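PT: before anyone asks, these are the final sequences, not the draft ones from last week. 449 residues across everything. Please model them as a single complex and drop the result in this thread when it's through.
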Amino acid sequence: MRLSKQAVASFAVTGMVLGASLAVLADAFQDRHMAMEEIGDAMKALGAIAKKEAPFDAAVVKKSATTIADNLKTASGLFPAGSGGGDSRAKPEIWTDAAGFEKTLKDAQAAAAALQSVADEAAFRPALGTLGGSCKACHDKYRLPPKP
Amino acid sequence: MTRRSRSAATLATLLVAGAAAFWLLTRPAPLPASVVPSHELDLRNGETLFHAGSCLACHRPPDDAPGDHGLPSGGRPFPTPIGVFYPQNLTPDPETGLGRWNEIDFVNAMRLGISPSGTHYFPAFPYASYRSMTMADLLDLRAYLRSLPAVRSGPRAARVPLLTLARRGVGLWKRIAFRQPAFSPAPGHPLSWTRGAYLVNAPGHCGECHTPKDVLMVADQSRFMAGGPHPGGEGKVPSLRGLLARKRYKSADDLVLALQNGETLGYEHLSSGGMAAIQENLARLPEGDVQAIAAYLLSLE
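LR: through. Structure below.
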Protein backbone atom coordinates (compact mmCIF):
# COMPACT_ATOMS: atom_id res chain seq x y z
CA MET A 1 0.00 0.00 0.00
CA ARG A 2 1.29 3.40 -0.88
CA LEU A 3 0.37 6.39 1.14
CA SER A 4 0.33 9.92 -0.14
CA LYS A 5 2.73 12.38 1.42
CA GLN A 6 -0.21 14.21 2.97
CA ALA A 7 -1.48 11.03 4.63
CA VAL A 8 1.95 10.27 6.07
CA ALA A 9 2.28 13.83 7.27
CA SER A 10 -1.15 13.85 8.89
CA PHE A 11 -0.44 10.52 10.63
CA ALA A 12 2.81 11.93 11.91
CA VAL A 13 1.17 15.12 13.15
CA THR A 14 -1.66 13.17 14.81
CA GLY A 15 0.89 10.90 16.45
CA MET A 16 2.92 13.81 17.71
CA VAL A 17 -0.12 15.62 19.07
CA LEU A 18 -1.35 12.45 20.73
CA GLY A 19 2.07 11.70 22.19
CA ALA A 20 2.49 15.26 23.36
CA SER A 21 -0.92 15.35 25.05
CA LEU A 22 -0.29 12.00 26.76
CA ALA A 23 3.02 13.42 27.97
CA VAL A 24 1.22 16.53 29.24
CA LEU A 25 -1.29 14.36 31.15
CA ALA A 26 1.47 12.19 32.62
CA ASP A 27 3.39 15.34 33.56
CA ALA A 28 0.31 16.80 35.25
CA PHE A 29 0.04 13.68 37.41
CA GLN A 30 3.77 13.80 38.26
CA ASP A 31 3.73 17.54 38.92
CA ARG A 32 0.76 17.51 41.23
CA HIS A 33 2.17 14.49 43.02
CA MET A 34 5.36 16.51 43.66
CA ALA A 35 3.30 19.52 44.77
CA MET A 36 1.34 17.35 47.22
CA GLU A 37 4.57 15.87 48.61
CA GLU A 38 5.94 19.36 49.24
CA ILE A 39 2.68 20.41 50.89
CA GLY A 40 2.79 17.25 53.01
CA ASP A 41 6.32 17.99 54.20
CA ALA A 42 5.38 21.57 55.07
CA MET A 43 2.28 20.32 56.93
CA LYS A 44 4.52 17.99 58.98
CA ALA A 45 6.54 20.96 60.21
CA LEU A 46 3.35 22.83 61.10
CA GLY A 47 1.78 19.75 62.69
CA ALA A 48 4.85 19.29 64.90
CA ILE A 49 4.30 22.79 66.31
CA ALA A 50 0.58 22.20 66.81
CA LYS A 51 1.33 18.93 68.62
CA LYS A 52 3.95 20.76 70.71
CA GLU A 53 6.72 18.50 69.43
CA ALA A 54 8.46 21.66 68.22
CA PRO A 55 8.42 25.21 69.62
CA PHE A 56 6.33 27.88 67.92
CA ASP A 57 8.51 29.75 65.44
CA ALA A 58 6.86 32.41 63.28
CA ALA A 59 9.60 32.10 60.66
CA VAL A 60 9.02 28.34 60.25
CA VAL A 61 5.28 28.92 60.06
CA LYS A 62 5.68 31.60 57.39
CA LYS A 63 8.07 29.50 55.34
CA SER A 64 5.87 26.38 55.51
CA ALA A 65 2.67 28.29 54.81
CA THR A 66 4.32 29.97 51.81
CA THR A 67 5.42 26.59 50.41
CA ILE A 68 1.84 25.36 50.76
CA ALA A 69 0.30 28.53 49.28
CA ASP A 70 2.67 28.47 46.28
CA ASN A 71 1.98 24.82 45.54
CA LEU A 72 -1.77 25.30 45.86
CA LYS A 73 -1.58 28.19 43.39
CA THR A 74 0.08 25.98 40.76
CA ALA A 75 -2.30 23.10 41.60
CA SER A 76 -5.18 24.79 39.73
CA GLY A 77 -3.42 24.08 36.44
CA LEU A 78 -2.37 20.54 37.32
CA PHE A 79 -5.72 18.79 36.84
CA PRO A 80 -6.29 18.82 33.07
CA ALA A 81 -9.27 16.71 31.91
CA GLY A 82 -8.20 13.11 31.31
CA SER A 83 -5.34 13.13 33.82
CA GLY A 84 -7.11 10.73 36.21
CA GLY A 85 -6.97 6.93 36.23
CA GLY A 86 -3.92 4.70 36.44
CA ASP A 87 -1.93 5.33 39.60
CA SER A 88 -3.71 8.64 40.18
CA ARG A 89 -6.10 8.88 43.13
CA ALA A 90 -7.98 11.74 41.49
CA LYS A 91 -11.72 11.04 41.53
CA PRO A 92 -13.75 11.62 38.34
CA GLU A 93 -15.78 14.17 40.38
CA ILE A 94 -12.87 16.61 39.89
CA TRP A 95 -14.03 16.96 36.30
CA THR A 96 -17.75 16.17 36.61
CA ASP A 97 -18.07 18.70 39.46
CA ALA A 98 -15.40 21.13 38.25
CA ALA A 99 -17.01 24.14 39.96
CA GLY A 100 -17.15 22.37 43.33
CA PHE A 101 -13.55 21.24 43.00
CA GLU A 102 -12.40 24.73 42.06
CA LYS A 103 -14.17 26.12 45.14
CA THR A 104 -12.53 23.71 47.60
CA LEU A 105 -9.16 24.51 46.04
CA LYS A 106 -9.84 28.26 46.41
CA ASP A 107 -10.78 27.71 50.08
CA ALA A 108 -7.47 25.94 50.64
CA GLN A 109 -5.55 28.73 48.88
CA ALA A 110 -7.23 31.33 51.09
CA ALA A 111 -6.50 29.31 54.24
CA ALA A 112 -2.81 28.95 53.30
CA ALA A 113 -2.57 32.68 52.61
CA ALA A 114 -4.11 33.46 56.00
CA LEU A 115 -1.59 31.18 57.74
CA GLN A 116 1.34 33.02 56.13
CA SER A 117 0.73 36.14 58.21
CA VAL A 118 0.12 34.47 61.58
CA ALA A 119 2.21 36.16 64.27
CA ASP A 120 1.58 34.23 67.49
CA GLU A 121 0.74 30.78 68.75
CA ALA A 122 -2.83 31.71 69.74
CA ALA A 123 -3.68 32.60 66.14
CA PHE A 124 -1.65 29.72 64.74
CA ARG A 125 -3.73 26.76 65.89
CA PRO A 126 -7.11 27.86 64.50
CA ALA A 127 -5.46 29.00 61.25
CA LEU A 128 -3.80 25.61 60.85
CA GLY A 129 -7.12 23.94 61.68
CA THR A 130 -8.83 25.87 58.90
CA LEU A 131 -6.12 24.96 56.41
CA GLY A 132 -6.15 21.29 57.42
CA GLY A 133 -9.93 21.30 57.28
CA SER A 134 -9.81 22.57 53.71
CA CYS A 135 -7.33 19.79 52.80
CA LYS A 136 -9.75 17.31 54.39
CA ALA A 137 -12.81 18.69 52.62
CA CYS A 138 -11.13 18.31 49.23
CA HIS A 139 -9.53 14.91 49.89
CA ASP A 140 -12.76 13.53 51.29
CA LYS A 141 -14.70 14.45 48.19
CA TYR A 142 -12.21 14.29 45.36
CA ARG A 143 -9.60 11.69 46.34
CA LEU A 144 -9.86 7.90 46.01
CA PRO A 145 -8.73 5.54 48.77
CA PRO A 146 -5.09 4.41 48.46
CA LYS A 147 -4.32 2.11 45.53
CA PRO A 148 -3.31 -1.49 46.27
CA MET B 1 -47.23 -43.07 34.23
CA THR B 2 -44.87 -42.68 31.34
CA ARG B 3 -41.18 -42.21 32.03
CA ARG B 4 -41.44 -38.56 31.01
CA SER B 5 -44.31 -37.74 33.33
CA ARG B 6 -42.56 -39.62 36.14
CA SER B 7 -39.42 -37.50 35.79
CA ALA B 8 -41.54 -34.35 35.61
CA ALA B 9 -43.19 -35.39 38.88
CA THR B 10 -39.77 -36.05 40.46
CA LEU B 11 -38.55 -32.63 39.34
CA ALA B 12 -41.64 -30.94 40.71
CA THR B 13 -41.21 -32.74 44.04
CA LEU B 14 -37.57 -31.68 44.24
CA LEU B 15 -38.47 -28.07 43.45
CA VAL B 16 -41.18 -28.01 46.10
CA ALA B 17 -38.87 -29.65 48.64
CA GLY B 18 -36.09 -27.19 47.75
CA ALA B 19 -38.41 -24.21 48.09
CA ALA B 20 -39.72 -25.54 51.40
CA ALA B 21 -36.16 -26.05 52.70
CA PHE B 22 -35.22 -22.53 51.57
CA TRP B 23 -38.32 -21.17 53.26
CA LEU B 24 -37.56 -22.94 56.53
CA LEU B 25 -33.83 -22.20 56.55
CA THR B 26 -34.30 -18.50 55.85
CA ARG B 27 -37.17 -17.89 58.24
CA PRO B 28 -36.52 -14.82 60.43
CA ALA B 29 -36.69 -15.71 64.11
CA PRO B 30 -36.98 -12.48 66.10
CA LEU B 31 -36.45 -12.36 69.84
CA PRO B 32 -39.55 -11.98 72.06
CA ALA B 33 -40.13 -8.74 74.00
CA SER B 34 -39.43 -10.64 77.23
CA VAL B 35 -35.66 -10.55 76.55
CA VAL B 36 -35.60 -6.77 77.17
CA PRO B 37 -34.49 -6.22 80.77
CA SER B 38 -35.62 -3.31 82.90
CA HIS B 39 -32.90 -0.73 82.60
CA GLU B 40 -32.21 2.80 83.76
CA LEU B 41 -31.61 4.80 80.59
CA ASP B 42 -28.43 6.84 80.13
CA LEU B 43 -28.73 9.35 77.28
CA ARG B 44 -25.08 10.42 77.52
CA ASN B 45 -24.02 6.82 76.99
CA GLY B 46 -26.44 6.59 74.07
CA GLU B 47 -24.88 9.65 72.48
CA THR B 48 -21.38 8.22 72.93
CA LEU B 49 -22.49 5.01 71.19
CA PHE B 50 -24.11 7.02 68.40
CA HIS B 51 -20.75 8.68 67.70
CA ALA B 52 -18.71 5.50 68.29
CA GLY B 53 -20.83 3.77 65.65
CA SER B 54 -20.59 6.75 63.29
CA CYS B 55 -24.29 6.19 62.68
CA LEU B 56 -24.49 9.59 61.03
CA ALA B 57 -21.88 8.67 58.40
CA CYS B 58 -24.39 6.40 56.63
CA HIS B 59 -27.72 7.65 58.00
CA ARG B 60 -27.16 11.25 56.85
CA PRO B 61 -29.66 12.90 54.54
CA PRO B 62 -28.60 13.28 50.89
CA ASP B 63 -26.34 16.29 50.17
CA ASP B 64 -29.15 18.15 48.42
CA ALA B 65 -31.83 17.47 51.07
CA PRO B 66 -33.19 20.40 53.08
CA GLY B 67 -32.98 20.42 56.88
CA ASP B 68 -30.35 19.67 59.50
CA HIS B 69 -27.55 17.50 58.11
CA GLY B 70 -26.42 16.71 61.64
CA LEU B 71 -29.50 14.54 62.17
CA PRO B 72 -29.68 10.89 61.05
CA SER B 73 -32.74 11.31 58.85
CA GLY B 74 -31.35 8.83 56.31
CA GLY B 75 -31.93 8.48 52.61
CA ARG B 76 -28.41 9.14 51.39
CA PRO B 77 -27.70 6.54 48.65
CA PHE B 78 -25.41 3.74 49.83
CA PRO B 79 -24.07 1.94 46.76
CA THR B 80 -22.97 -1.70 47.07
CA PRO B 81 -22.02 -4.35 44.51
CA ILE B 82 -25.56 -5.82 44.63
CA GLY B 83 -27.48 -2.55 44.40
CA VAL B 84 -28.22 0.78 46.05
CA PHE B 85 -29.59 1.04 49.59
CA TYR B 86 -31.15 4.07 51.24
CA PRO B 87 -30.34 3.92 54.97
CA GLN B 88 -33.24 4.18 57.42
CA ASN B 89 -34.35 7.44 59.00
CA LEU B 90 -33.24 7.04 62.66
CA THR B 91 -35.09 10.08 64.01
CA PRO B 92 -38.36 9.49 65.94
CA ASP B 93 -40.69 10.43 63.07
CA PRO B 94 -43.61 7.97 63.33
CA GLU B 95 -44.12 7.55 59.58
CA THR B 96 -40.63 7.52 58.14
CA GLY B 97 -38.41 7.11 61.21
CA LEU B 98 -38.23 4.94 64.33
CA GLY B 99 -41.17 6.63 66.07
CA ARG B 100 -43.29 3.48 66.21
CA TRP B 101 -40.46 1.09 66.99
CA ASN B 102 -40.55 -0.32 70.48
CA GLU B 103 -37.53 -1.61 72.37
CA ILE B 104 -37.68 -5.14 71.04
CA ASP B 105 -37.95 -3.87 67.45
CA PHE B 106 -34.70 -1.97 67.94
CA VAL B 107 -33.02 -4.92 69.65
CA ASN B 108 -34.05 -7.30 66.85
CA ALA B 109 -32.75 -4.91 64.19
CA MET B 110 -29.39 -4.43 65.91
CA ARG B 111 -28.87 -7.96 67.22
CA LEU B 112 -30.37 -10.10 64.47
CA GLY B 113 -30.82 -7.80 61.48
CA ILE B 114 -34.59 -8.32 61.50
CA SER B 115 -36.99 -5.45 60.77
CA PRO B 116 -40.14 -4.75 62.81
CA SER B 117 -42.17 -6.28 59.96
CA GLY B 118 -40.12 -9.47 60.30
CA THR B 119 -37.91 -9.35 57.22
CA HIS B 120 -34.13 -9.64 57.01
CA TYR B 121 -31.98 -6.56 56.59
CA PHE B 122 -29.10 -6.84 54.17
CA PRO B 123 -25.78 -6.84 56.02
CA ALA B 124 -24.91 -3.47 54.46
CA PHE B 125 -26.46 -2.52 57.81
CA PRO B 126 -23.62 -3.90 59.95
CA TYR B 127 -25.59 -5.88 62.54
CA ALA B 128 -22.94 -8.60 62.35
CA SER B 129 -20.92 -6.14 64.49
CA TYR B 130 -23.76 -4.55 66.45
CA ARG B 131 -24.95 -7.94 67.69
CA SER B 132 -21.93 -7.82 70.03
CA MET B 133 -23.27 -4.71 71.79
CA THR B 134 -24.62 -5.10 75.30
CA MET B 135 -28.37 -4.92 75.86
CA ALA B 136 -27.92 -1.85 78.12
CA ASP B 137 -26.01 -0.05 75.36
CA LEU B 138 -28.67 -0.88 72.77
CA LEU B 139 -31.39 0.53 75.00
CA ASP B 140 -29.37 3.69 75.73
CA LEU B 141 -28.68 4.19 72.03
CA ARG B 142 -32.38 3.82 71.25
CA ALA B 143 -33.23 6.31 73.98
CA TYR B 144 -30.73 8.81 72.55
CA LEU B 145 -32.21 8.45 69.04
CA ARG B 146 -35.68 9.04 70.50
CA SER B 147 -34.43 12.25 72.10
CA LEU B 148 -33.55 13.76 68.70
CA PRO B 149 -35.96 16.01 66.80
CA ALA B 150 -38.22 14.02 64.47
CA VAL B 151 -37.54 14.58 60.78
CA ARG B 152 -39.86 13.41 58.05
CA SER B 153 -37.95 11.91 55.14
CA GLY B 154 -38.87 10.57 51.75
CA PRO B 155 -39.05 6.77 52.03
CA ARG B 156 -37.07 5.05 49.31
CA ALA B 157 -36.98 1.32 48.65
CA ALA B 158 -33.62 -0.30 47.99
CA ARG B 159 -32.74 -0.82 44.34
CA VAL B 160 -31.67 -4.45 44.37
CA PRO B 161 -32.62 -7.02 41.73
CA LEU B 162 -35.14 -9.65 42.96
CA LEU B 163 -35.38 -7.67 46.21
CA THR B 164 -37.88 -9.86 48.10
CA LEU B 165 -36.16 -13.14 47.23
CA ALA B 166 -32.71 -11.67 47.88
CA ARG B 167 -33.90 -10.32 51.23
CA ARG B 168 -35.17 -13.74 52.22
CA GLY B 169 -31.87 -15.27 51.04
CA VAL B 170 -30.04 -13.16 53.61
CA GLY B 171 -31.35 -15.74 56.09
CA LEU B 172 -28.93 -18.26 54.59
CA TRP B 173 -26.06 -15.80 54.90
CA LYS B 174 -26.92 -15.25 58.56
CA ARG B 175 -26.76 -19.00 59.21
CA ILE B 176 -23.12 -18.87 58.12
CA ALA B 177 -22.13 -15.43 59.43
CA PHE B 178 -23.71 -15.91 62.86
CA ARG B 179 -21.74 -19.12 63.36
CA GLN B 180 -18.85 -16.85 64.32
CA PRO B 181 -19.29 -16.08 68.00
CA ALA B 182 -20.24 -12.53 68.92
CA PHE B 183 -17.19 -10.48 69.87
CA SER B 184 -16.10 -10.50 73.48
CA PRO B 185 -12.81 -8.92 74.55
CA ALA B 186 -10.03 -11.31 75.57
CA PRO B 187 -9.57 -11.38 79.35
CA GLY B 188 -6.45 -10.24 81.22
CA HIS B 189 -6.09 -6.79 79.67
CA PRO B 190 -6.25 -3.33 81.25
CA LEU B 191 -9.68 -1.73 81.50
CA SER B 192 -8.90 0.83 78.79
CA TRP B 193 -7.90 -1.89 76.29
CA THR B 194 -11.09 -3.82 77.01
CA ARG B 195 -13.19 -0.71 76.49
CA GLY B 196 -11.32 0.04 73.25
CA ALA B 197 -11.79 -3.52 71.99
CA TYR B 198 -15.53 -3.27 72.61
CA LEU B 199 -15.88 0.15 70.97
CA VAL B 200 -13.87 -0.91 67.91
CA ASN B 201 -15.53 -4.27 67.36
CA ALA B 202 -19.13 -3.83 68.51
CA PRO B 203 -20.55 -0.31 67.98
CA GLY B 204 -17.55 0.96 66.00
CA HIS B 205 -17.82 -1.90 63.45
CA CYS B 206 -14.32 -1.04 62.14
CA GLY B 207 -13.87 -4.61 60.92
CA GLU B 208 -16.73 -4.25 58.45
CA CYS B 209 -14.23 -2.51 56.17
CA HIS B 210 -10.83 -3.15 57.77
CA THR B 211 -11.26 -6.95 57.97
CA PRO B 212 -11.53 -8.44 54.48
CA LYS B 213 -14.46 -10.72 53.68
CA ASP B 214 -14.27 -14.27 52.36
CA VAL B 215 -16.13 -15.59 49.30
CA LEU B 216 -19.34 -15.89 51.33
CA MET B 217 -19.07 -12.22 52.38
CA VAL B 218 -18.31 -13.23 55.96
CA ALA B 219 -15.46 -11.50 57.84
CA ASP B 220 -12.26 -13.54 57.39
CA GLN B 221 -11.01 -13.67 60.98
CA SER B 222 -7.63 -15.06 59.88
CA ARG B 223 -7.04 -11.62 58.34
CA PHE B 224 -8.58 -9.67 61.23
CA MET B 225 -8.16 -5.89 60.62
CA ALA B 226 -5.55 -6.63 57.95
CA GLY B 227 -7.18 -4.32 55.39
CA GLY B 228 -8.50 -5.26 51.99
CA PRO B 229 -10.34 -4.05 48.93
CA HIS B 230 -12.42 -0.92 49.45
CA PRO B 231 -16.15 -1.70 49.55
CA GLY B 232 -16.71 1.32 47.30
CA GLY B 233 -15.02 -0.65 44.52
CA GLU B 234 -11.82 1.31 43.97
CA GLY B 235 -8.65 1.43 46.04
CA LYS B 236 -8.03 -0.36 49.31
CA VAL B 237 -8.78 -0.11 53.00
CA PRO B 238 -5.55 0.07 54.99
CA SER B 239 -4.50 -2.51 57.57
CA LEU B 240 -4.84 -1.55 61.24
CA ARG B 241 -2.27 -4.13 62.30
CA GLY B 242 1.24 -3.18 63.33
CA LEU B 243 0.52 0.56 63.20
CA LEU B 244 3.54 1.27 65.45
CA ALA B 245 5.90 -1.26 63.85
CA ARG B 246 5.07 0.10 60.40
CA LYS B 247 5.64 3.63 61.73
CA ARG B 248 2.15 4.77 60.82
CA TYR B 249 1.88 6.42 64.24
CA LYS B 250 4.57 7.32 66.75
CA SER B 251 2.64 6.54 69.91
CA ALA B 252 -0.79 6.13 71.43
CA ASP B 253 -0.93 9.93 71.92
CA ASP B 254 -0.16 10.40 68.23
CA LEU B 255 -3.02 8.09 67.22
CA VAL B 256 -5.37 9.86 69.65
CA LEU B 257 -4.53 13.21 68.02
CA ALA B 258 -5.08 11.65 64.59
CA LEU B 259 -8.52 10.28 65.54
CA GLN B 260 -9.53 13.55 67.19
CA ASN B 261 -8.26 15.93 64.52
CA GLY B 262 -7.73 14.04 61.28
CA GLU B 263 -6.39 16.22 58.56
CA THR B 264 -6.94 19.45 60.50
CA LEU B 265 -3.62 18.44 62.10
CA GLY B 266 -2.22 17.07 58.85
CA TYR B 267 -3.10 13.36 59.36
CA GLU B 268 -3.94 13.04 55.71
CA HIS B 269 -4.54 9.27 55.68
CA LEU B 270 -7.78 9.79 57.59
CA SER B 271 -9.53 11.65 54.81
CA SER B 272 -10.31 9.44 51.89
CA GLY B 273 -12.61 6.53 51.16
CA GLY B 274 -15.24 7.75 53.63
CA MET B 275 -12.94 7.84 56.67
CA ALA B 276 -13.20 11.63 57.09
CA ALA B 277 -16.85 11.38 58.17
CA ILE B 278 -16.00 8.57 60.59
CA GLN B 279 -13.09 10.52 62.07
CA GLU B 280 -15.37 13.51 62.64
CA ASN B 281 -17.75 11.30 64.61
CA LEU B 282 -14.93 9.73 66.63
CA ALA B 283 -13.74 13.25 67.48
CA ARG B 284 -17.00 13.70 69.42
CA LEU B 285 -16.23 10.81 71.80
CA PRO B 286 -15.06 11.46 75.36
CA GLU B 287 -11.25 11.62 75.35
CA GLY B 288 -10.97 8.50 77.51
CA ASP B 289 -12.81 6.49 74.85
CA VAL B 290 -10.54 7.75 72.08
CA GLN B 291 -7.54 6.78 74.23
CA ALA B 292 -9.10 3.35 74.75
CA ILE B 293 -9.58 2.88 70.99
CA ALA B 294 -5.96 3.92 70.37
CA ALA B 295 -4.66 1.57 73.08
CA TYR B 296 -6.55 -1.36 71.57
CA LEU B 297 -5.67 -0.62 67.93
CA LEU B 298 -1.96 -0.27 68.70
CA SER B 299 -2.03 -3.70 70.36
CA LEU B 300 -2.99 -5.38 67.05
CA GLU B 301 0.18 -6.92 65.67
